[in-house]
Structures are given as structure tokens and as C-alpha cells.
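Reviewer 2 asked us to include a model.

Predict the structure of this chain.
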Amino acid sequence: MVFPMVILKLVDWIFYQLLANSCYRAAKKMRSYGFFFSKNASLKSSSSLQQQQQPPMYPSVTKCDLENRGFDTLVCDMNGVLLRSHSFFPYFMLVAFEGGNIFRAFLLLLSCPVLWVLDYEMKLRIMILISFCGLKKKNMESVSRAVLPKFYLENLNAQAYDVLASAGSRVVFTSVPRVMVEGFLKEYLRVEGVVGTELHAVGDYFTGLISGSVLLQKHRSLNDYFGDTKPQIGLGTSSPHDHLFLSLCKEAYVVNKEDMNKSSSIMPRNKYPKPLVFHDGRLAFLPTPFATLCMFMWLPLGILLAIFRLFVGILLPYKISIFLATWSGVVIRLKGQCPPSSTLHPRKGVLFVCTHRTLLDPVFLSTSLAKSLTAVTYSLSKMSEIIAPIRTVRLTRDRNRDGETMQRLLSEGDLAVCPEGTTCREPYLLRFSSLFAELADEIVPVAMNTRVSMFYGTTASGLKCLDPIFFLMNPSPSYYIHILEKMPRELTCAGGKSSHEVANYIQRQLGDALGFECTVFTRRDKYLMLAGNEGIVHDSTKRKKP
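Predicted model (C-alpha cells):
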């Protein structure tokens, strides 16, 4: 009986709330902006002139004194206050694309003309319906944990955050769905309480409806939360809708549009409340309506271009493949050169120790050097293994067996290894495994970095077999390869150094070459944080014997 009731409730809401009310509001808006434009223009100009002459009701957030606020309670909104943008459409698009699928994202994009003529409440209801209807709760939890924090941090208002950080207690009231902001606010901004719009769900799925059929009203929720007690500080926007909310606080400050446009409102990376080391998702840009439209227009060409680039790298010789890849928009910057072969161990190959940005790291290294390499990896999808233009060997995570395998491969030729064990998108290097240092004396560090504008070529929770495709779908993907000097013998295990000392030294050397920060995070830390597992790709061909 629950499911039919949900369907009936949804149909009733669509026909009454959406069609009737929205058409009425649209007619009013068209009437005011079209037929009576000339009459209202003079009235609006005079009213705006009066507003300019009147002093603002509340001072700017830049006027707030940050001293001795450790025992004060602060309340504010997320949208337009903590975030510099007033539109929450990009974050709903991230939920639709990353948590749902491309068809849900396209439907949300098609709704933009309708959203333009609706008021704020109806816009929010439509975006919630499209983004959440039929969405699994676990998918939303994954997006909230691994995707949204990156875009929230990049759009964080530094001025509002300084006031927030100065307060001892922080509570956020917002009309957007609580599940979209609560994880970020509590983990990154140390907010104690988050009160937002609650979504209706049946079992493990969202219905796309609002629980209780009412959006959160900030002033009412503030009264319910604090009772007769007034919070010391309130932050809001200059919109009249926030005046009632701010009137319930002892001190009130507003975030003006003029303050938003200043460079001081942009939060630099080195001042993030918490370092952003890991994040997931395919989209590398903030999906505003215009940017999302450009992405969908690019997709058909991008898919064909990725297939062309892939076959060029697989089938053609090195020089021709580099020429055609560059002609198609791929940027490859090579610094340094391949060291000469060793005279001490003429039958043993060189071990290239690379930073790990995508699965294509060894491929671009091999193509840039115009020489055949073998790459070892801890986990590789079957599809990536098939389409790889170079030899790839999967390791087993058994230290003795993996050591024997790498020794055998080095005796056959040059070997490329990524001791981080997994990719990292941000300017950080994960902890290096020390196994490689025990196997070779001829070690060449290689600093590698990538630049993308539309899609990330890595994922922790998605289909890894599509990683190379997504990277090559970018209009102009870029690879930076810096081949450092060969490690002196006295700095290797043959010179008396321990394997851990060698690994840490090379990590610092590569970090300095790229301007990256070295960390002690491991592959396990990344996957537990982003995907809730240890990131091991199991071989489905292996079956247990009865």
C-alpha cells in the first residue's frame, strides 16, 4: 500500500503544485515584465533610488569583530552565505550525474527553462524531484562524502568562514536537503548542528518528495531549535527573506553581492579548513547550466575523439602516435631524458619509479621515451589490461611473490612501477611502498602530472575500465613528464641505505619536482574514505575449489 500512496501523492503534487501554481506565477511574471514594463520601470527606478538612499538594515559580514567569540553561538545558511554562489543548481547536477546517471542529469538540464520562470521554492522542489526520485540512499551518501566537498571548498566564502570559525558553537539552517550538506558541514567546518529540508524515502530509495510536503522555514526552525534563547551571531544574505531570520539573533551581519565579487572572499587552497587529499566523481568542473550544456554538446565528439586517440596509441608507432595525439589536442610536455644503460648490470633493466596520476602513466612514459616498458600494478580491470599498448603485469600483494615477479621482469627489460599503489588527483603524494628499492640499483625517478578540464580519468567507486576513455574524452588532456637524474649508487640499498630510506627520499625528490606535499596516506586510506572498501579488484576467473 505504501508504493501506490507515494504515486498518488506524486501525481497530485505535479498536477496541482507544479502546473497550476507555476503557471499562475509564470503568468504574473510575464505580465509584470512584459505588458506593464514601461509603467513599472519608473516605479522600480524610484524604489531602487530610495533603497540606495536608505542605510542597510544590517552591517556587512566584514564588519564583524572576530575577537573573544569562543563562547558565542553562530547561526547561518549554506547557500549564498557560506558558499559564494547563490544558485544551488550545480550541486543538484552533481547529485544527478554522479549519484544517478547521465539521463537524469540531462533531464535536469532540460528543466532549466522551466526553472527560470519559477520562484525559489518551486525551483527547489523541481530540482529535488528530478535529482532524487528513485535515487539510492547509498549513492547519495557516496556523493555527499566523496564528490560534493571538493566543490563546496572551492566555492567557500572566506569572509563568512572566518566569522564561522571564530564562534564556539555553530548551527546551520538551510532550505536545501540536509543530506546534501550535513556531511561536509560537520567534517570540514566542524558544525555542531545542521537543520535542513528532509526528504521522503521508501526503503533504500528516495521518492523525490519533501518529507511533510513543506520546505524548511529558517526562522521557524531557529525558534524550534533554540526556544526562547537568542543566538549571539546570525549570518544571512541581504535578501528581505533573511531579515526575519536575522532579527532573532543578538547580532546580525549580511553577505553582500559586492563582498562576493572581491578577491578576499575566495578561499585559497592552503587555508582550507581541512586538506582536500581525496575526492571522487567524473566531473572536473562546476556544472552550471551553461557548462553542463557545453558538456552534453561535446560528448558525441568527445567519445569519437577518445576512440581515435586510443587506437592511435595502440596500433601506430611511437613517433606517428605522438604526432597524431598532439594534432588531436593531447598535450605532452617532456623534461629530461632517458639515462644510458648501466655498464655494471648490462643484462638488467632500468626501474622507472613514477608518481601515479592515471592508469595511462606508464603508457605516456613509454610513448614519450619511444621505448618498450613493462608496467606492474596492484589492481587492473580486465578491459584496461586488454587495451593497454604495453605489457602489464598484475601484482598479488604477497611481498615475496611480487618481489620475485619484479626481479624476473627487470631481467627481461625496463620496468615502470608506481609505488603509491593508487592515483591521487590533488597535489599530494601518497606513501611509497619500499618494495621497489630492494629490487634494483638502477632507479630513475619520474615526476608525472596531468591536467584535465572536463572529466577525471580516475575513479574509486565507478567503472575502472572507463578511466582511460574518460581521460581521453577531454578536449585537451595534458601530461607533464619530468625524468629526474638516476639515483646515485650510494643512495640506494646497494650503498647501505634501507629500503624505507630510499623510498622516502625518492618521494621527497618527486614531491619537490612537482611542488606536491608528501603524505603518509596509503591506498587503503583512500578507498576506505571514498568507496568504503580496500580497493582490491578481485579476479573473477579464480574460483574456489570444492
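The first strand starts at residue 73 and ends at 76. The radius of gyration is 28 Å. We have added this to the supplementary material.
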